[in-house]
Amino acid sequence: MSWARTAGLMALLVLAGCNAPDTKPQIDPAFEDEVRELVRQSGQHCGFDVVAPYQEKLLQHGEKAFPVYEAILADPDTDERMVSLTCAAIERIKVDRRRFVPLLVKRITAGDAMYVPEWQFRAQVDSREEQARQRSRMESHTRDELANLLVEIGDERDAAALAPYLIHQSESLRRVAARVLCAFGNHSHLDTMNMLLKHAIDRAGADELQHLTQCRDALAKRLKEHPVPRTLTN
After folding, report:
1. Which of 6, 7, 84, 232 supports an S-S bond with 145, CB 3.0-4.6 Å?
2. Which helix (H) or strand (E) element contains residue 106?
3. Sequence-ordered list of residues with C-beta below 8 angstroms from that of 152, at least 6 positions apart, any chain
4. What percent of the chain has pLDDT over 90?
5. For position 20, what pLDDT does the model report?
6. Residues 107, 80: contact at Cβ < 8 Å?
7. Distance, CA of 45 to CA of 205 (rounded, Å)
8. Cα-flanking dihedrals φ and ψ of residue 154, to 5°?
9. Cα dihedral sign for 164, 211, 112, 133?
10. How many C-alpha atoms does 14 have within 13 Å on its Cβ side?
11. Domain limits, the chain
């Protein structure tokens, strides 16, 4: 085959690739609506709510529902209850779930835009101070739920993304960063925690310093007992 003909075929292949249709699977709207409703019903509003059938149905859907969970977590308007229930649904499915790690890290480290829309609590309280307290509580709760799942499905590769937030202005983000590093951190992260405790970071109160101390001690214990990273033992 001549060089010219080969080059022509290569050009056609490139053009074909450029015009190839998007092969990313589309979510069936009816199925997405079903999964979202199952997620909403899978958590108790009151102590007498029956949630087991909804949780079992989500388990039956298994990995098929993963694109819906991704859409829920990626939506900045998803409220904190839906985030929590989605994380719980993912946690119950014991398969490889690393596909969710980038979304979890993004939501944990994001600002207000990734949390509860203001209208949801503006109608409930008039005081700006109380609005700020409610927002802080919601952000803290949401980050805790996301961190629960990240610790469950992540590994040492995810520590670097959270390490810089040990000195973030948000207390809830500092706490979550310390907790994730407790599970995945290395000796460098341990040194950073020791430095922060030694200099008693200015904005930290006694409760936060106790939390950081507990995370530091747990990280030191883990590194001593399990020096080989989880990624090398799986």
Report:
1. 84
2. helix 101-109
3. 91
4. 50
5. 45
6. no
7. 33
8. -90, -170
9. negative
10. 6
11. 28-42+50-154, 163-234
Q: CA 102, CA 200: separation in Å to the nearest integer?
A: 31
Q: How many residues does this entry show for the chain?
A: 234
Query: What distance in Å separates the CA atoms of residue 197 and residue 122, rounded to the nearest whole number?
Result: 37
pLDDT over 50 at 15, yes or no: no
CA 157 centroid distance within chain: 14
Query: Is the Cβ–Cβ distance between 153 and 101 less than 8 Å?
Result: yes
* Helix, strand, coil share (%) of the chain residues, nearest 5: 75, 0, 25
* Ordered alpha helix ranges (H), 26-170: 29-41, 52-61, 66-74, 80-92, 101-109, 119-122, 128-153, 159-162
Q: Which two tokens stand for residue 71?
A: 């859409």
Instruction: Judge whether 194 and 209 are in contact, CB under 8 Å.
Output: no
**Could you identify the residue written with the tokens 């890290």?**
105
What single-letter amino acid sits at 26? Q
Q: What is the pLDDT of residues 58-102, one digit of tens each?
A: 999 999 999 999 999 998 888 888 999 999 999 999 999 999 999
| Among 184, 193, 192, residue whose Cα is nearest residue 157 | 184
Location of structure tokens 């310390």: 178
Is 167 within 8 Å of 174 (Cβ atoms)? yes
Contact 73, 107 (CB under 8 A): yes
Report the distance separating Cα 175 and Cα 197, nearest Å. Answer: 13
